[in-house]
Design brief:
Number of strands: 10
Helix content: 25-40%
CATH class of the largest domain: Alpha Beta
Number of helices: 9
Number of domains: 2
Oligomer: single chain
Largest sheet: 6 strands, parallel
CATH architecture of the largest domain: 3-Layer(aba) Sandwich
Strand order of the largest sheet: 7-6-5-9-8-10
């Protein structure tokens, strides 16, 4: 499976963004100039598209085609709006289960988490538009196709999603070692959303301040942390156990 559908050229990418194609990320050659380039920057900024400025060598590795200094990756799945996802789930389910991923950057970890989420009945995954691993062919493959089954919403700021979920009666639980509370001391029985942090730095401090509960996994060995997809699996299956 190809990693993503790619499109090339400034004008083509501008039109794709205006047509609301599900663009995961735009790679822009450093030093690019001109009126059309400025228009692209404006459209990217206006629509909150994830982008990065890279050397031409990076673009040449991404494709052998004539990229004209710009490449965009189009996601193979459709993303939901936060309100559409949350309100739709709450209307149908008494105790929803959501998963929030804070700046997760590895596509295979992302895919593994989506797979476990589908197996444990997660109603929706919420990610931030910028700084999060894209949904690529590798993500789809690692998820065993679950990425086509679990709704995923993108938001500008994850903290806004936290506040919206709380206002909708959803309890926010952070998976973090920065607490004395064990996962086995926290209730997952009511409608809740579990937040998993980035592989290297965990959950953002500003988000940790906003959550309703924190829980950590007991680590009995010498290694200080688990792989995020493994830790996520433990949290989700503890939720299944408590609700069974």
């Amino acid at each position: 499976m190809e990693n993503t559908t790619q499109i090339y050229g400034i004008r083509a990418i501008i039109e794709a963004i205006k047509a609301e194609k599900p663009i995961d990320k735009v790679f822009i050659q450093k030093g690019l100039k001109g009126d059309l380039f400025k228009e692209l920057e404006t459209v990217i900024r206006k629509n909150g598209i994830n982008s990065s400025y890279v050397p031409i060598e990076k673009l040449n590795k991404l494709t052998r085609n004539n990229h004209q200094g710009v490449i965009a990756n189009i996601s193979p799945i459709r993303f939901y709006e936060l309100e559409e996802l949350v309100e739709g789930v709450i209307a149908k389910k008494e105790t929803p289960l959501f998963l929030l991923l804070d700046q997760l950057s590895d596509v295979r970890n992302f895919g593994a988490i989506i797979r476990t989420a589908e197996c444990t009945g997660v109603d929706g995954i919420i990610i931030q538009k910028k700084g999060t691993a894209p949904v690529t062919g590798d993500t789809i493959k690692t998820s065993a196709g679950a990425a086509f089954k679990v709704p995923i919403a993108k938001v500008d700021h994850l903290k806004d999603a936290v506040y919206f979920l709380q206002s909708s009666g959803i309890k926010i639980i952070a998976a973090t070692e920065k607490t004395e509370s064990s996962i086995y001391d926290v209730s997952f029985k009511e409608g809740c959303a579990i937040i998993m942090g980035a592989e290297d730095v965990g959950i953002s401090p500003s988000i940790l301040k906003a959550v309703d509960a924190k829980a950590k996994l007991p680590l009995l060995g010498e290694i200080g942390s688990l792989n995020v997809s493994v830790a996520c699996g433990v949290f989700l299956y503890e939720t299944v156990r408590q609700r069974s």
